[in-house]
TrEMBL record:
It is a multi-pass membrane protein. Pfam families: BPD_transp_1. Residues 79-294 form the ABC transmembrane type-1 domain. One of its GO terms (cellular component) is plasma membrane. Coiled coil: none annotated. Keywords: Cell membrane, Membrane, Transmembrane, Transmembrane helix, Transport. The chain crosses the membrane at residues 21-41, 83-104, 113-134, 213-238, 273-297. It comes from the Bacteria. This is ABC transporter permease subunit. It is found in: Cell membrane.
Length: 304
């Protein structure tokens, strides 16, 4: 079947065809180029120049800012914090989300719609409202968390969750898990609807228990959704900023300063746009490398 298009023919010349589909997608392509591609290219360009709000002059420095970042202890610390923040968030978001989906998908659960609505509240709640709720919960003197832990005898004195060097990163990770696990539940529960009950019954007749049915029947059928969810969660968490900024601002002593917070401080507190751009390129490379590696694994699995 020939591709549709407009043909411009003239004697002795080759036929030139214009596919009208290009005209339909052109506005979207131009919008994406302006909104995403241009800022990305400009950031990469700016990372090779020493640029500051304090000075109108820009000086080409090549890879000097990248080398300076690698030697910067605060940048290395932000990489460590980003790793803890991302791995901790994604692992627990996925585990809690899939557990909630499996529970609510059971036939004996009543009032499923009510439970779905209640569980989805953290996800649909504006982030700044959620942050303020958790700030009060984490308050060292009046917070409900310390009150509960002391009442049950788990701790003997109040803990400064958001200002402790060892607890700040854990505290913001908990908030991020609370915020995003409903999204995982929603996606996984939707995928569970496509799992054939006949296959489950056949496996049960062959003597498989509930756990074995999950790993041999259910999980292979929802694996595509699981891979996509993990990829999205990882990309979102790597670039997350709101909870870190609103709860700890990267403190105390840079203990919870993830890369997004590190970039923000260089750009909008130090006004060093060159270094901020170089750090942004680092974050972009980490995110894109993970995405490409992850997608290549999915493609190889699909070919099998």
């Amino acid at each position: 079947m020939k591709n549709p298009g407009y043909s411009l023919e003239s004697p002795g010349k080759k036929t030139f065809k214009i596919n009208p589909g290009y005209l339909f997608v052109a506005p979207a392509v131009i919008a994406v180029a302006l909104v995403l591609l241009y800022p990305l290219l400009h950031t990469i360009f700016l990372s090779f120049f020493k640029s500051s709000l304090m000075s109108d002059a820009t000086e080409f420095v090549g890879f000097a800012q990248y080398i300076e970042l690698i030697k910067d202890k605060l940048f290395i610390n932000s990489l460590r914090a980003t790793f803890i923040w991302t791995v901790g968030s994604v692992v627990f978001q996925f585990l809690i989300g899939i557990f909630a989906a499996l529970v609510i998908n059971q036939s004996f659960i009543k009032f499923k719609m009510l439970f779905r609505i209640l569980i989805m509240v953290p996800w649909v709640l504006p982030s700044i409202i959620g942050v303020n709720i958790w700030k009060w919960a984490y308050h060292p003197d009046f917070g409900i968390i310390n009150h509960f832990l002391i009442s049950t005898g788990i701790i003997s004195e109040n803990i400064s969750w958001l200002s402790g060097a060892n607890t700040a990163i854990i505290s913001i990770t908990i908030v991020n898990v609370w915020k995003m696990f409903p999204f995982v539940m929603l996606m996984i529960e939707a995928a569970l609807q496509s799992v054939s009950n006949e296959l489950k019954e056949a496996a049960r007749m062959d003597g498989a228990n509930t756990v074995r049915i999950f790993f041999t029947v259910t999980l292979p059928h929802i694996s595509g959704t699981c891979y996509t969810v993990v990829l999205l969660l990882t990309i979102w968490t790597l670039n997350a900023f709101t909870f870190v900024y609103a709860l700890t601002e990267g403190g105390p002593a840079h203990a919870s300063e993830v890369m997004s917070m590190f970039i923000y401080k260089f750009a909008f507190q130090n006004y060093d746009f060159g270094m901020a751009s170089a750090a942004s390129v680092f974050l972009f490379l980490i995110t894109s490398t993970f995405a490409v590696f992850y997608i290549s694994i999915l493609m190889r699995r699909g070919e099998r």
